[in-house]
Input
Amino acid sequence: MTYCVAVKLRAGMVFLSDSRTNAGLDQVGTFRKMIVYEKPGERFMCLLSAGNLSIAQSVREILQVEHLQDPENDSAITIWNAKSMFDAARVLGSAVRHVYERDGEALKRAGVDFNVSMIFGGQVQGEGMRLFQVYSAGNFIEATAESPFFQIGESKYGKPVLDRVITPETPLDEAAKCVLVSMDSTLKSNLSVGLPLDMAVYEADQLTTDKITCIDENNPYYRMVHGTWGEKLREVFDSIEDPTWDGSHTEVPLLCASARSQPLRKITNPKEKLI
Output
């Protein structure tokens, strides 16, 4: 399993991925899930992948040479000359289908599902930033102002903080902090997600970035986030009043009548019916 997350803001984009891959309890490996494609001043694109590692690696390899025919001038569209991120995402979808056509039947005979999901985002000169989630069939959806982030892999543990913090107006550095907290929450709760992490932060309209880093257990900022988040969560938890059951005074009683529902009725003998 893995966990990857990407957010699109007015200020830019943040991408984060772990590097844990396992095929059993005693087969744990480290493989990077992020790759950056960049022509400074012309295009910046970042690809994150989750699912079957062999499929993801094949898609990434084929993506370098995959092309679509441009119906307007009969030329080949690749990720390197696509005039929009939408067309680049179409090329990625074609690469996914290419791998399926080549390996899908063999995988099926071996009892292996064709399982891959990807996040693909960036900016091409002449248009705004765009962010897509690509599925195993090669189809994709695009992030919107209402849904400014995508997650793939083991996403449930890191989603609550993203839901509470991320909006299109979130500053770039705050979003970077938020996705690291999201990843730390996932690492804490799921052993199939692990360090090191790859992070890329892209500022809008720059068409290049030098904010790319690899984060391991010795990274000072990550260690601070890990420790502080755990401590502050405990402080907030301890500040919430415990429920009372003995009738003692409280401004927030738990035992109280409900206008809509009655408390659960106990069954006290074999003849008593539920309804």
Remarks:
- The first strand starts at residue 3 and ends at 8.
- Residues 85-109 form the longest helix (25 residues).
